[in-house]
Amino acid sequence: MDQTWQSLKGQFLMAMPGLADPNFYQSVTCLSEHNPKGAMGIVLTRVHPTVNGKMIFDELQIPAAAGAEKIPVHIGGPVHMNEIFVLHAAPFTWEGSMMVTGELALSNSRDILEAIAGASGPQSFIIALGCAGWGPGQLESEMRSNAWINGPYSEVIAFQMEVERRWEAALKGIVIDPALLSDTAGHA
Asked: 3-state secondary structure string, 129-177?
């Protein structure tokens, strides 16, 4: 393995202005896995325009508490669009929880969806359909070509901030003014 390789697991991946792909334009993705075999994450900046939490719970025949229709469902990325992923803060006791960091996990088991539907799940969560994925070396290559920049995870940005403000806030979190970004890669 390359001695300079470094995992970005648990970090934000922000799209650079030149990334025109509509799946990722001005997006923030939370990387839930990154190793030499590839990377996987959940896009935090795309809310599904027609699907809400109650619809997901009804489809799975999970009884839902009042207000479930107000739970947004995100488009987590263009991969596995028929699968449900839950990016969440504590607790981490769900059957399918995969720890991302000490404060963040990714789950896709029925028990967490039942808890969220019953208003007894984690305080901070995102339900997503699909995920973003990269094959071996693909993300690193895209970063070298100036498609992405990485930065630290922030619970406030991921779960509390309005979706429309997340991209700019994540960039400002690494002291970058989005208005000053170029879409041209530089090489020293």
From this structure: EEEEEECCCHHHHHHHCCCEEEECCCHHHHHHCCHHHHHHHHHHCCCCC
